[in-house]
């Protein structure tokens, strides 16, 4: 059988993209409905349409896909499979006619999308009247774009006229196939390079699509289901826009596109916005009449900040649009998204349609009635449509991601923004209005419509007394076996009140309340808490609850800060109370005295504006702060919460929280005002799921307030409905998750759950959300809800402007619940309690919560988070949440908390407390296996210093009395490791026993087995030095550092020590100098005639690196790509910014040119994907390779990956695509490899004696430098810079305090002595070094050369010491052995000495100064450097007393050194 021969042509790039898209959706249809007015000859019209079809090949094209081929071929047929039908609608009334037209238009669209052949062009003629028709044309979008549909109207009208005249078309249009072939050829031509480079250099892959917080789902793999909402601009605004466009010499397209960018920026809060703009693909006149899919949506990005003016943004976007139009043919999808899955992600789009034309053909008028064109996916698209005398804004959106209500609001926001631009064109874009009067009224009035008239003339204890009169014999409070009726409780409170008045308690006097909530101490203790609160309030005073678990110092601080003169407590706690003038009353032993007081209700002296209580909360300054709450605020809360929760009278309430916080106040006060029975649950019962369930079974509870994590922990142990109250469960104190809600609702479907939110500063609670049984769960956490009665809430931006619904902002709370402020902290009160900018009353205030929230469509608020916790480990700044989030990504981890711990040696370590899933624990049955899995998981995701040294397995995380994570109760990893017991192998020899004891002491562990790994137990580089010092003292043995890497267990190390000749494998460095043969320049290097536009810098987070980055920003206009290890671009950017700020180098005007490149020197391709590596290789013009793993204690083997292999990857990058110069920053230490007989080492002196180099770090730099030289021989332009000891900035004194030199100075000052030495000290100020390197690197003559970057004017060590002494520090110069012995003794006694980490390198006499430039034997020449800088003002400041004084002053000013006693 003959095989079929198929003549076909490849698709255009536009068709290829659409072909991939339509595999997932059938929505891609183009359709136009043409209104024909006049007497129409239907047969002629049908002939006219056929003529148009025959005239344009694309309308006769079908698509044929061969097996195994990704894309089909387009085949042009002799005739087209055209469908034509006529439908008579004349008998329908006008309104019915309109509905029928809409129905038929939709039906036609569906018929095309569902066609299996996808090659059908459909014509449907609707007859409405004798002189009125609608012609519907529908076809797949592979055939047409929006411009095509407009052309079809023109073509058919012209064809109709020609057919009536018996004529034919005379011109021949450009066929789509011609366009398609031209487009494909264009991309392969040599001339395409400029156009392709334009798009590649935009680096769109690094810009995230704008994420709008009000999107319904972030799963963009849902079906693409577009919907449309149209809104016409008012006529007067349309006229004003026309005037604005003319006045500002712009056009409608750029004006509306700029407005769209600004709105998306305001709503997404992303610093750079990417929007896909429509280009019609017909910039050449010959293509204007072409039918087919020529158009593209191409990305344009725009960085925005609040300070920009509209005109600036307009100018930027206009230029970007102009360039995009110029290069539109060269855009490829790979320029923005690398994988097919990314191709399917949903952008935000924009297009502008010009005024559609109307055509007349022999008395018949052809005009567009309706148009639908869809050939691209999007989540949101603005289409601005020009009509004859109006402007329509059409918002197309993916209905899976947005509700109609959200889009309608978005449309209003856009119109408001446009109006604001026209009205106030000169205000900054951050101040342009986007909230219209309707939404503003909703935010200010409707959402805050909470005014309720509650009685305002009473205090809480008066409400209680009223309740006593109503229910005197009802049980008021229960604790264990003890209970009091309302009358009994009132009697005891009255006696106490009378007694307290006699002690001087009156309004505004704070009385301390320091009583335990434990049934194991005193059975009546917690009853006394309630008695005490009522007694204090009745006396006129205010109570200050204090947690019995407080450390003595913390308790003393609070008592002193609050000026407590009377303290109510119990006998067992007296020993914890500091001795001062406070009057102490023990409620368990002093009642005999108190009972003699008046039992009647006292006349109230307190007024609603007087204090009711003060509660301490944590403070950012390190000390807690007391929040002052008044009676009127508490009473408003009681009324409001009773109404909101619909609390029943005479119900039963339970509190499981400490009295020292206000969490339990939600049930305590309402219970005592409604005749309720308040159950105070002992602490040990509240923490025991079974005990609590048993109690609730015995004492049924109607209302319970509890922290979500507390309840989660209880339910994890006992899945029982008995823990759930009968009527309502109130969650509060932290964010609630839907998983917990689902769990509760399954256990107890009849229980109503409330989420309750409110800072202490707003009196217990301000917002409440009633969780329905069936909810869509549109928010990531359970909403906070809506404000209580007489409470006002605002979501504001940094300028205190309202943010729209759905957009994040900070929550501000006002109204009747606002506390008075903070005790003794007027400045903090002023800062956090600000004037209400929306109130006419100048006295109205708002509390700045610091909580990030957003409004949901229904007016409920959703919590979005707060600031991260931050710690420092060995000088590295770490966000603990970042580590927790990483570990949580492991499928076997259920809950995790990461903390820092400090042992007796002040060694701070990271500890991860893990609750694993049962399945994970089952698979990995011992601690060691679990810890190894999690550690390996972290190794892949976190830098070394951010990996927890210990993983502690817990069954559940401990909780505070308040129900939150109890960090203090987390087990101490230094003291016990029960998980190791099953794997513990005891020492077998005396040597192993001694080693195990040393390890346990240094690591702070109870015991260490002989097979435990030093590093897995928490060891790190700073601890190695302590270990080696111990081994040296006890065993009189000198061990090289690398031994511990080779022998990391007790058993291995013992075997090494037993060998008197420690086996250390000498590395043959010469054999390491092998550069990958594949690293050969792609082309010959041609020096650039223009300055570089993109520079790669490694090591920007190092000390010298920060100054190099600063110099590059100042001396070039290029973008600086900084290779950096980080999880996200945001973290990387913040780290770079903080780094520059710490060295006083931050320049806000340059921040947009600093571009983080997330990668890793120690990984192949620098940790980048192959595509990203190639992209960077094409983009970068010059490389400054300054990055290295700098560690003077690690062996070569530990540093090779980053320092040697990393350099090889840099050279690979330099050779790929285009050849780039590499400026390599080495170290002066490599000259140790020169001939030792030479007296002078020049920059061109061979350094080929690698065996002379001993330090692992210098070895790695020597090998790396040799690789660079080999690359230079292969044709890569290189230059090498060998800096000596880099010291601080000669102008500011800013220095790297962890540097060897500054550790030496600080350590000697702390020790009070220095070693005698006759060496010269050579310190090179970092500002000179960075200026010299950047200047020299920019000179073409520098290529191929080596430069020594050292100080030509060193100073004798003796003179350095004298300068320090003259500054005021007493130093005694002693012989080196004596000094070293003194240092070792000091470090053994106190490891805090700055020299502690370097003690291993200071062991031998020759180790004191290891840098060759310090050696008195060999001189180092720097002629290349001096010659290269001769014509500049760049000179190295001499090392003298002035320079040393600058450094010492910086160290003192920043508290790294104490001010000397003899220096002012």
Automatic annotation (TrEMBL):
Residues 986-1061 form the Carrier domain. Keywords: Ligase, Phosphopantetheine, Phosphoprotein. It comes from the Bacteria. Its cofactor is pantetheine 4'-phosphate. SMART domains: PKS_PP (SM00823). The keyword Phosphoprotein applies. Transmembrane segments: none annotated. The keyword Ligase applies. Pfam families: AMP-binding, AMP-binding_C, Condensation, NAD_binding_4, PP-binding. This is Amino acid adenylation domain-containing protein. It comes from Calothrix parietina FACHB-288.
């Amino acid at each position: 059988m003959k095989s079929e021969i198929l003549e076909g042509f490849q698709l255009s790039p536009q068709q290829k993209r659409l072909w991939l898209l339509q595999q997932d959706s059938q929505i891609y249809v183009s359709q136009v409905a043409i209104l024909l007015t006049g007497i129409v000859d239907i047969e002629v019209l049908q002939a006219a349409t056929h003529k148009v079809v025959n005239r344009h090949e694309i309308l006769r094209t079908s698509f044929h896909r061969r097996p195994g081929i990704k894309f089909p071929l387009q085949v042009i047929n002799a005739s087209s499979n055209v469908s034509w039908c006529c439908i008579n609608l004349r008998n329908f009334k006008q309104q019915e006619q309109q509905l029928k037209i809409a129905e038929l238009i939709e039906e036609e669209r569906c018929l095309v999308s569902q066609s299996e052949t996808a090659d059908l062009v459909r014509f449907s003629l609707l007859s409405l009247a004798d002189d009125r028709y609608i012609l519907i044309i529908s076809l797949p979008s592979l055939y047409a774009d929006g411009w095509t549909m407009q052309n079809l109207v023109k073509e058919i009208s012209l064809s109709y006229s020609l057919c009536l005249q018996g004529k034919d078309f005379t011109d021949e249009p450009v066929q789509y196939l011609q366009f398609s072939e031209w487009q494909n050829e264009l991309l392969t031509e040599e001339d395409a390079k400029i156009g392709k480079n334009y798009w590649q250099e935009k680096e769109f892959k690094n810009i995230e699509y704008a994420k709008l917080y009000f999107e319904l789902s972030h799963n963009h793999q849902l079906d693409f289901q577009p919907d449309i909402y149209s809104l016409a601009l008012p006529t007067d605004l349309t006229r004003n826009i026309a005037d604005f466009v003319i006045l500002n010499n712009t056009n409608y397209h750029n004006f509306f596109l700029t407005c769209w960018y600004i709105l998306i920026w305001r709503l997404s809060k992303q610093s750079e916005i990417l929007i896909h703009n429509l280009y019609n693909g017909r910039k050449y006149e010959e293509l204007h009449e072409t039918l087919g899919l020529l158009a593209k949506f191409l990305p344009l990005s725009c960085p925005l900040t609040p300070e920009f003016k509209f005109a600036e943004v307009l100018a930027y976007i206009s230029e970007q649009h102009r360039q995009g139009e110029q290069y539109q043919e060269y855009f490829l999808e790979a320029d923005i998204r690398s994988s097919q899955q990314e191709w399917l992600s949903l952008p935000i789009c924009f297009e502008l349609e010009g005024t559609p034309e109307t055509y007349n053909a022999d008395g018949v008028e052809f005009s567009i009635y309706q148009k639908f064109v869809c050939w691209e996916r999007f989540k949101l698209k603005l289409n601005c449509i020009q009509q004859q005398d109006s402007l329509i804004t059409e918002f197309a959106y993916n209905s899976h991601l947005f509700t109609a209500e959200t889009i309608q609001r978005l449309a209003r926001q856009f119109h408001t923004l446009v109006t604001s631009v026209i009205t106030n064109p000169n205000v900054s874009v951050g101040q342009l209005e986007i909230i219209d009067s309707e939404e503003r009224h909703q935010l200010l009035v409707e959402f805050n419509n909470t005014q309720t008239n509650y009685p305002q003339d009473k205090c809480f204890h008066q409400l209680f007394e009223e309740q006593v009169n109503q229910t005197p014999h009802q049980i008021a409070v229960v604790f264990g076996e003890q209970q009091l009726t309302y009358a009994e409780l009132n009697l005891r409170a009255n006696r106490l009140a009378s007694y307290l008045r006699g002690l001087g308690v009156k309004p505004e006097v704070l009385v301390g309340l320091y009583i335990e909530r434990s049934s194991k101490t005193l059975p009546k203790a917690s009853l006394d808490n309630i008695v005490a609160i009522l007694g204090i309030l009745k006396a006129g005073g205010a109570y200050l609850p204090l947690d019995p678990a407080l450390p003595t110092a913390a308790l003393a601080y609070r008592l002193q800060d609050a000026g407590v003169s009377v303290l109510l407590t119990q006998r067992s706690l007296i020993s914890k109370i500091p001795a001062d003038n406070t009057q102490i009353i023990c409620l368990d032993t002093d009642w005999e005295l108190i009972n003699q007081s008046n039992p009647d209700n006292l006349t109230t002296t307190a007024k609603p504006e007087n204090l009711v209580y003060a509660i301490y909360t944590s403070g950012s300054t390190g000390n807690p702060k007391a929040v002052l709450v008044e009676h009127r605020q508490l009473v408003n809360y009681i009324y409001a919460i009773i109404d909101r929760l619909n609390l029943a009278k005479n119900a039963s309430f339970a509190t499981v929280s400490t009295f020292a916080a206000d969490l339990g106040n939600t049930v305590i006060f309402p219970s005592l005002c409604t005749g309720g029975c308040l159950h105070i649950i002992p602490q040990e019962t509240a923490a025991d799921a079974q005990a609590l369930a048993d109690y609730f079974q015995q004492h049924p509870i109607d209302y319970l307030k509890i922290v979500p994590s507390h309840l989660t922990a209880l339910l994890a142990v006992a899945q029982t409905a008995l823990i759930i109250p009968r009527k309502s469960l109130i969650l509060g104190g932290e964010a609630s998750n839907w998983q917990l809600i689902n769990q509760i609702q399954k256990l107890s479907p009849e229980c109503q759950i409330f989420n309750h939110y409110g800072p202490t500063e707003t009196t217990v609670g301000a917002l409440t959300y009633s969780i329905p049984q069936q909810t869509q769960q549109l928010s990531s956490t359970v909403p906070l809800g809506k404000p209580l009665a007489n409470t006002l809430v605002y979501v504001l931006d940094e300028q205190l402007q309202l943010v729209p619904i759905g957009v994040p902002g900070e929550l501000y709370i006002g109204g009747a619940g606002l506390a008075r402020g903070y005790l003794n902290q007027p400045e903090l009160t002023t800062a956090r309690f600000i004037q209400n900018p929306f109130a006419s009353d100048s006295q109205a205030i708002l509390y700045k919560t610091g909580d990030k929230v957003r409004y949901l469509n229904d007016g409920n608020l959703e919590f979005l988070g707060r600031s991260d916790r931050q710690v420092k480990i060995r000088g590295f700044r770490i966000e603990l949440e970042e580590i927790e989030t990483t570990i949580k990504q492991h499928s076997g981890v259920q809950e995790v908390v990461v903390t820092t711990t400090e042992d007796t040696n002040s060694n701070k370590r990271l500890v991860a407390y893990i609750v694993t899933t049962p399945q994970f624990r089952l698979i990995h049955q011992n601690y060691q296996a679990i810890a190894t899995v999690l550690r390996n998981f972290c190794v892949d995701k976190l830098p070394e210093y951010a990996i927890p040294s210990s993983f502690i397995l817990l069954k559940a995380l401990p909780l505070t009395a308040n129900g939150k994570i109890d960090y203090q109760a987390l087990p101490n990893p230094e003291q016990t490791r029960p998980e190791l017991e099953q794997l513990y192998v005891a020492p077998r020899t005396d040597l192993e026993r001694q080693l195990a004891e040393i390890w346990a002491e240094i690591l702070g562990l109870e015991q260490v087995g002989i097979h435990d790994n030093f590093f897995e137990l928490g060891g790190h580089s700073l601890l190695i030095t302590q270990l080696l010092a111990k081994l040296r003292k006890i065993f009189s043995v000198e061990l090289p550092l690398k031994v511990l890497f080779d022998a990391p267990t007790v058993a291995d190390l013992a075997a090494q020590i037993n060998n008197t000749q420690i086996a250390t494998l000498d590395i043959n460095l010469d054999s390491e100098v092998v550069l990958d043969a594949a690293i050969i320049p792609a082309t010959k290097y041609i020096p650039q005639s223009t300055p570089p536009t993109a520079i790669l810098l490694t090591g920007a987070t190092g000390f010298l690196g920060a100054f190099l980055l600063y110099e590059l920003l100042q001396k070039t206009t290029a973008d600086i790509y900084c290779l950096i290890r980080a999880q996200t671009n945001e973290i990387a950017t913040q780290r770079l910014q903080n780094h520059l700020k710490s060295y006083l180098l931050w320049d806000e005007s340059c921040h947009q040119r600093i571009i983080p490149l997330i990668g890793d020197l120690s990984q192949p391709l620098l940790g980048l994907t192959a595509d990203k590596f190639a992209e960077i290789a094409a983009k970068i013009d010059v490389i400054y390779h300054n990055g290295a793993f700098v560690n003077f204690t690690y062996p070569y083997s530990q540093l090779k990956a980053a320092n040697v292999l990393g350099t090889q990857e840099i050279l690979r990058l330099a050779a790929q695509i285009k050849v780039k110069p590499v400026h390599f920053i080495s170290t002066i230490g490599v000259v140790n490899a020169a001939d030792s007989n030479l007296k002078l080492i020049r920059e061109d002196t061979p350094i080929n004696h690698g065996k002379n180099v001993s330090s692992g770090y210098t070895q790695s730099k020597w090998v790396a430098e040799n690789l660079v030289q080999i690359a230079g021989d292969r044709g890569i332009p290189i230059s090498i810079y060998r800096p000596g000891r880099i010291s601080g900035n000669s102008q500011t004194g800013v220095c790297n305090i962890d540097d060897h030199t500054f550790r030496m100075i600080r350590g000697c000052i702390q020790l009070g002595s220095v070693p005698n030495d006759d060496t010269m000290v050579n310190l090179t100020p970092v500002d000179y070094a960075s200026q010299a390197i950047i200047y020299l690197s920019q000179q073409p003559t520098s290529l191929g050369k080596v430069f020594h970057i050292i100080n030509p004017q060193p100073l004798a060590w003796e003179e350095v010491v004298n300068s320090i002494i003259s500054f005021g520090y007493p130093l005694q110069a002693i012989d080196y052995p004596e000094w070293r012995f003194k240092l070792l003794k000091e470090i053994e006694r106190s490891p805090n000495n700055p020299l502690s980490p370097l003690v291993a390198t200071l062991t031998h006499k020759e180790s004191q100064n290891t840098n060759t430039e310090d050696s008195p034997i060999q001189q180092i020449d720097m002629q290349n450097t001096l010659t290269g800088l001769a014509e500049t003002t760049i000179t190295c400041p001499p090392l003298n007393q002035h320079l040393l004084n600058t450094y010492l002053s910086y160290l003192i000013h920043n508290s790294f050194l104490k001010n000397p006693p003899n220096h002012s």
